[in-house]
Amino acid sequence: MTFYTLLRLHKRIKSRKLKLLGLLVASKLGFRHLSVRIDPSLSCNLACRMCNYSSAEYRKKNRGALNTEEFEDIARVLFPRAFQLVVGCAAEPTKHPGYRELFRLARRYKVPDVSMVTNGQLLTREDIDVMCGYGVNEIILSCHGVKKATYEKFMTGAGYEKFHEVLGLIKETRDAGNKLPRLRINYTANRDNLDELKAFFEVFGRYPVDVLQVRPVMDLGGRYGQQFTEADLPKYNEVLSYLEEACRRHGVVFLANRDDAAYREATRDADLAELVYTYISPKTAGQLGISWSNINFRKFRRADRWNSRLIKSFFSKSSGEGWMTRSLKY
Ligand code: SF4
Fold this sequence. Notes:
TIM Barrel; 14 helices; 14% strand; binds iron/sulfur cluster
């Protein structure tokens, strides 16, 4: 079962309580029920304008890297319960010299769905071959512009030609008969790069794109924080309808925030998502007061207050405010 199958199931089951109960049962029976998201290093080689990494202050405050021994212990504690591992969440994973070790560990613990989110600028053929060898399911490339000038303007420090080179490497891997890794493009849309999305398949149609996700810009404290307003929505929806149809014709899964591009509403199941998504960064051990070397899953869960959060969610009417309140709007 992949993340996309679970996403469809999640949309089909309307009752929050039923979903929370299912999660509790899966946890008690020792089933895989976590989506583990790891930032092995808190740093990025780029300074994209819409990202908090374009703020010098943010870069200064958010640093550090996990060491390889910690990888082993994190995998021992969490991977047996993970249905999904995503390497890279809020920073660039390829900045860590040993990030590929996480794929080996995921294979050892038989994590069924493994992916990496990256800007791709540091990826080499060898990296892609290693991912292919470990059966990595998906490479998710961030892209903030279809045309060169827009791409390089919003992804400050990135090269458009390098992006195409990486897409070409993935195509070669797939053309060689490998079904994996799938290719997903995450496009952060704003007022200044929305129009050119219509040319997406003209430019990128020759690559084996499996999934396209369009995410409206969110003000994260970066240099560019102009979110869409109500006035932008007709245009936004028109471009997305065009793209949805183009994706259908190209056999590409289309994920998009169609309902709340201005992020006015809280995500209905944010608390549920926060119980499933287990975010690990170099700061996690310090924040939870644990040491990865001498903890097991039961102790991690206690430190993470998972059971009490689940009970609280079960008895509350709304999902409350949390770190995923404005996410998952697709
Ligand atoms: S959006 Fe991604 S690639 Fe761009 S600066 Fe932020 S973490 Fe780096």
